[in-house]
Model the fold of this input.
Amino acid sequence: MAADSGEPGPPRPGEELDQDRLAEYLRRALGLEGPRVQQFPGGHSNLTYLVRAGGREVVLRRPPFGSTVKAAHDMGREFKVLSALAPLFPKAPRVLAFCEDASVLGAPFYLMERVGGLILRSRVPEGVALPPETISRLCAALVDTLVELHGLDYAAAGLADFGTPEGYALRQVAGWTKRYRAAQDAEVAEMDAVARWLAEHVPSAQGASLLHNDYKHDNLVLDPARPDRIVAVLDWEMSTLGDPLMDLGTTLAYWVEEGDRDELKAVAFGPTRLPGSYTRRQLVDRYAERSGRAVHDLDFYYCFGLFKIAVVVQQIYYRFRQGLTRDPRFAGLGGAVSVLARQAALHLGRPEL
Done:
């Protein structure tokens, strides 16, 4: 995927916010005056803005313009989980306000504190030193933070009604297959084969956890002075309750290794091949060790993760093709769907990763 600097800049054409309505809301909700708005360049789903007002910096999150997949961009749901996590999970950003009135900015949105730090995208920022030993410790911290999340008492956090763990994996396969059909604009034989295989090989879950569902490098904020230390986890829009190995599978699907095919390396979603990086197998082994959870059916969980990411990419590309977004980054996403589908097809029935 294309790299970006991570620094906010002017909003992209077609993604500008109504400054007058935002100013009125900020005055009412937080007592802030004279907002100046910039947009963060990263991400392919919900839109994220930096708002400077009254000497403060806050982050605004809203759904993408032109999206018709309402369930995937539920701002109230994201606000709820972050509010509930605040006393239990220090790495969850603190939320400040939620606006469900779509007349303000055209869709519901919420505001949260800005957590400063380093975010690793497909390229390491200039001037940032990441020797192999630092990367290795970061990979360990990445796994350990996921284990920490999966070990939270979600009922004690008031999230017992945040999802229905029973039958979660089966519903996910059916749901993402349906979303793919709705956004499909070309025949991809491997996507059809993977969807069929997944539906026939859903494993039994061993317990339920709170899931992040999009856990990867660029959703982590790192301490610039100690880049192996995670200070925040961002982008909770797909969080729910379910089989924790589904969460692990998504992370594995984002993880591209040095030995992978060149076409997969070309669509890598993060710097997972830096010297010192774990392999997918090492991620699994550390997860099993730290969680005490038996990790099984890796072919299913890894291939489902690849399938889900491919569907998300297809949905974004479909919006671009329909003229519902003008973000130029999306123009080349069509080919990524086939690449991810081929990777999944190669691993059906092969749990060795």
Observations:
- Residues 1-5 have pLDDT under 50 and may be disordered.
- The chain has eleven helices and nine strands.
- The beta strands are 36-39, 47-53, 56-62, 95-99, 109-113, 209-211, 220-223, 226-233, 240-242.
